[in-house]
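How a chain folds remains the central question behind the approach discussed here. The record that follows shows the chain in one-letter code together with its fold in token form:
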Amino acid sequence: MDMPTHIDEILNSARRVLKIEADSLVAMADSLDETFVQAVDILLAAKGRVIVSGMGKSGHVARKIAATLASTGTPAHFVHPAEASHGDLGMVTKDDVALMLSNSGETPELMSLIDYTSRNHIPMIAIASKPGSTLMKAANAGLCLPPAPEACPMGLAPTTSTTMTLALGDALAVALMERRDFRPEHYKMLHPGGTLGAKLQKISALMRPTGALPIVTPDTPMVDVLLTIGKYALGVAGVVEDNALIGVISDGDVSRNIEGLSEKRARDIMTTAPKTISTDARLQEAVDFMNIHKITMLFVTENKKPIGAIHIHDCLRAGVS
């Protein structure tokens, strides 16, 4: 059945916008040159912070870029250009680097910041679409957006230009992360709260300790194995020989070997080559691993010796899924 005309029109409009903006991002990727490298080097050399500024829609994008930089290892904050000339220039120091955004490169409110950075020899990076603009001429590194139509049907509302600017800010942040060798443990320090912080926690922060592990030997009678599984309520018992984990017995193993079970020992029904994880692994890795192998619990080992355990419910309670 054909869709009503207005539905087609709405979807076609949305697809047109997305295609225009997607094409602009491809064009920008192709246009990058050594100036981008220069901008990254300037940012890396900064002893202070990255001062990000822009007016209007560029200001909203500037706030997001500043937040992304700050959360990925590059200290940064947003300074409103209109407020800068009313005292906020005092937030900018000679150790800082300025990153200024303006599609036209002629935003009047940026002029006091441009003058201030120039007089105090503060490096300045510009993102604009006009290479001959005041902002680009004053910049130590000018990142020029490639020619691209705004997705707005009137060609007036900042759409394509703000998308390109935002993406270029992301590109700078990621390049800086990689140059700084910014790793998950650094990311965790800056994101301690919420689900993200939980996912980045190491297993060692949440694992059940050695004294709370359901451990049996290969010769343990199955009657005692069942008591051990019930006591620790993990649905599993680990089989240890010479301090090494050599197998596990799950509820499933018990069910599959129920006939004559009381006459058997742990070695008779255990699953060998048990799935384990290290203390350095992160909670999200543990959850992903358990989901892939369709298990609910992992022993944490060190040189094959069980030193802890992590259950899927522990991870879920911590907010990791």
Remarks:
- The chain has 14 helices and 13 strands.
